[in-house]
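Incident log, structure service

09:12 report received: a user says their structure output differs between two submissions of the same chain.
09:20 pulled the input from the user's history:
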Amino acid sequence: MSAERDGSGELVPVVGTRAVVEREHLPELLRALEARGYTIIGPTVRDSAIVYDEIGSVDEMPIGYTDRQEAAEYRLGRRDDNAVFGYTVGPQSWKRQLHPPTVQLWSAKHDVADIHPGRETDTPDTHPRYAFVGVRSCELHAIAIQDRVFLGGAFQDPTYQRNREGLCVIAVNCGQAGGTCFCVSMGTGPRATGGFDLALTELCTPQRHYFTVEVGSPFGAELLAQVTHRAADEAALAAEQRVIEATAARMGRTMDTAGIHDLLMGNLDHPRWQQVADRCLTCGNCTQVCPTCFCTTVEDTTNLAGTLAERRRRWDSCFTTDFSHMVSGSVRASAKSRYRQWMTHKLATWIDQFDTSGCVGCGRCITWCPVGIDITEEVAAIRRSVAAGTSSGEA
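09:34 re-ran on a clean worker, output below:
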């Protein structure tokens, strides 16, 4: 579908429009979002990593930066060009905004006269309306998965629902693959296929720096109308396709997902679980950086004077012994049982619960594991031993 003419005869973008925006006009997109009252969350450099934070201009984005990722390794570096999105994904995901690490559920203040209960949260009038800029395809799939978790059942999570409403998503198709990426294996990238208002593909050469744009929603069409652009020609679309195909061909990891549910659930006593547990620190890094993990706990606190009580929900992890603690003790007391729970839930029982895998192939859990445990290798090791008819668990 291409642009249509309005009543004055001007061409206006519609859903499906393909356009080209030159690099010098990219700031117009952020200004259009800002003019509509959005709080813009985008990539920026902080603490030697690319993180997602509030930004006010393109100049705050990681222009000319890239990253190198392998198991237990993340290094920020400089590119030989001025690409804006020339990196893969950092330690943070968009769940930090949609499913915040800490949420106050309830509070009560006590004075000499009375107790005053209340819920100190943002009201609809004061809560920011988010625009996410630079969302990768794997992350779009992660947001869709969390939509099913928090909004798809009989009960909806009010915090997630409030943060999700009115969300604007500016996606970016990946121009490079990281050493721990395996989105192709999971069918989640590198091209964004839905869930966005606009999807950009960056093409940066010594001769020219521009973006191809795909309109994914009526609101995206409104935004594009506020940005200087022209219709995409066949050459631009062909260049876009080459970039995405090259990225898909350079995945750092692969995972064979055929029959993975039955493979894992049929091998719960496989020796490989103990072998990986011997290395695992049960630190929970993998669950914190994962864009789909959603486990939380609730804690009550009071101040020293006894005048303020608060109840907060905060991120938790199935790698902690307290997470599965019951009256008789922790259900999963060993590192083996906790790692097995995480991996089988992510790749198997998540399918039973939500009709989808809980993994999008972003590779963060591999990069940010201190000892370099690789979920793709653990699956492959079990698969190899089963195929060989052995139970040694050896790779």
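09:41 both user submissions now match this output. Likely a transient worker issue. Closing.
09:42 reviewer note: The CA atoms of residues 283 and 305 lie 34 Å apart. The first strand starts at residue 4 and ends at 5.
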